[in-house]
From TrEMBL:
Cofactor(s) listed in the protein's UniProt record: Zn(2+)
Keywords: Metal-binding, Transferase, Zinc
Keyword Metal-binding part of the UniProt annotation: yes
InterPro entries recorded: Aldolase_TIM, BKACE
Protein name in UniProt: 3-keto-5-aminohexanoate cleavage protein
GO molecular function, one term: metal ion binding
Top-level taxon of the source organism: Bacteria
PANTHER family in alphabetical order: 3-KETO-5-AMINOHEXANOATE CLEAVAGE ENZYME, 3-KETO-5-AMINOHEXANOATE CLEAVAGE ENZYME-RELATED
Species assigned in the record: Sphingobium indicum (strain DSM 16413 / CCM 7287 / MTCC 6362 / UT26 / NBRC 101211 / UT26S)
A Pfam family hit: BKACE
Length: 308
């Protein structure tokens, strides 16, 4: 049976508390959701932090410090820290937690892009917290900045820690940017490419796009140099990552990427999404990779060499 790495992105920095009561906000909620997702079969837990009082995204390492040790103590999952943070954070804030805790792996967005969720704002009449409406409505003017200089700065700042990267590619051009940094000698195989589909401003969730992205990555990097995974936003999540698994890819679920478990049905937890994709993978003849197997596949340094 083929082993598939299941990543679970627990809370993210895009969705807001009004959109789902299941979205974890406090350090305690993030820890419990992470532990449950790991028990359900997620080998990698991808983490952002939020201000516990109102759920606003934060890059403050002190907030991360309230849940990271708990997750490490109670699971063997690979802890993956964001360097994306949120669309409104400067790059220095976005990488602060990764710099402090030196995780086994952290996300790294491979290009700038429009990143929008503003159509949702018109569908919500009452918000739990004052910050939410403007944060979502103003995303029609957000540019998620990841310039060549920004990316190089992240490599320079996080270099020497042994941390590897989940290279998030939201469009074809991001693969070419990744190839540029490989040519500069800043990325060594095996590396991990997370192809992202269905974000308004990024590549659409169509099978033809997935096939072309994968073929382009093979041409640029060579099939043996990298592992690839797919995440899809919103309603595309489960059907699209199932298509990716059929093509030999790894998969990512979680409330960062979609708040739903089925058509019109909000998910009750991150673990519910992990359990669903695990059932689908079993029907396809696959089984979830363990954290140890994920570490081996991705060439990670091990949890004992982090500062969590």
């Amino acid at each position: 049976m083929a082993k598939v790495i299941i990543s679970c992105a627990i809370t993210g920095g895009i969705h807001t508390p009004t959109m789902s009561d299941a979205l974890p906000i406090t350090p305690e909620q993030i820890a419990e959701e992470s532990i449950a997702a790991a028990k359900a079969g997620a080998a990698i837990i991808h983490l952002h932090a939020r201000r516990p009082e109102d759920g606003h995204p934060t890059g403050d390492p002190d907030v991360f410090a309230r849940f990271l040790p708990v997750i490490k103590q109670r699971t063997d999952a690979v802890i993956n820290l964001t360097t994306g943070g949120s669309l409104t954070m400067p790059v220095q804030e976005r990488i602060a937690a990764a710099h402090r805790f030196q995780p086994e792996i952290c996300s790294l967005n491979m290009g700038s892009m429009n990143f929008a969720l503003f159509p949702v704002a018109g569908k919500i009449t009452e918000w739990k917290y004052p910050w939410e409406k403007d944060y979502i409505a103003n995303s029609d003017d957000y540019v998620f900045r990841n310039s060549f200089r920004d990316i190089a700065y992240m490599f320079e700042t996080l270099g020497g820690m042994g941390t590897k990267y989940e290279h998030e590619c939201y469009d074809l051009s991001h693969l070419y940017t990744l190839a540029h940094f490989i040519d500069r000698g800043l990325i060594k195989p095996p590396f991990f490419v997370q192809m992202v589909f269905g974000i308004l401003g990024g590549v659409g969730a169509h099978l033809e796009n997935l096939v072309f992205m994968k073929e382009t990555a093979d041409r640029l990097f060579g099939k043996e140099s990298y592992k690839w995974s797919v995440l899809a936003a919103g309603r595309h999540q489960m059907p699209f990552i199932t298509q990716a698994a059929l093509l030999g890819g790894h998969v990512r679920v979680g409330l960062e990427d979609s708040l739903y478990i089925g058509r019109g049905e909000l998910a009750t937890s991150n673990a519910q999404q992990v359990e669903k994709i695990k059932r689908i993978l079993a029907e396809l003849g696959h089984e979830p990779a363990t954290p140890a197997e994920a570490r081996e596949m991705l060439g990670l340094k091990g949890a004992d060499r982090t500062l969590i």
